[in-house]
Write a structure and sequence with these properties.
128 residues; alpha/beta; five-stranded parallel sheet; 4 helices; 7 strands
Length: 128
């Protein structure tokens, strides 16, 4: 990966925001999302950078790692929900370990399986 990518490189494709603080995981997710035919916004590695991208770039859905080092992606999820943008958390946590207000949110467990990621992207982007 040669730096942050944005939806501008995938004009016309659905734009997926990727938020993960671990470089290799973010890289792998970016590759998987692009291989599935979607554009990538980011990846963002912090709450601040993700919120900046949401403000600056078209975002159709998002994949959010829950734990971002010393912060969580909950503020990002709140902003996405306020804008009506679907998101899915990815985490090694169990659903009961999530903040109570997000226990009903879609969740993929790490390590994320390719077929599960593709199905979740399709689900988010089709509105089902």
């Amino acid at each position: 990966m040669t730096g942050d990518r944005t939806a501008g490189s995938g004009r016309g494709k659905p734009a997926v925001l990727i938020v993960d603080d671990e470089f290799l995981l973010a890289y792998d997710l970016t590759e998987e999302v692009e291989a599935a035919g979607y554009g990538v916004v980011g990846p963002a590695h912090s709450v601040a950078s993700a919120l900046d991208l949401i403000e600056a770039e078209r975002t159709d859905c998002a994949i959010l790692d829950v734990n971002l080092g010393k912060e969580t992606s909950y503020p990002i999820a709140e902003e996405l929900a306020a804008r009506g943008i679907p998101f899915t958390f990815i985490t090694g946590y169990e659903i009961r370990q999530l903040d109570a207000s997000f226990r009903e949110a879609p969740l993929l467990c790490k390590p994320v399986q390719t077929h599960a990621l593709h199905a979740k992207l399709q689900e988010m982007l089709s509105g089902t």
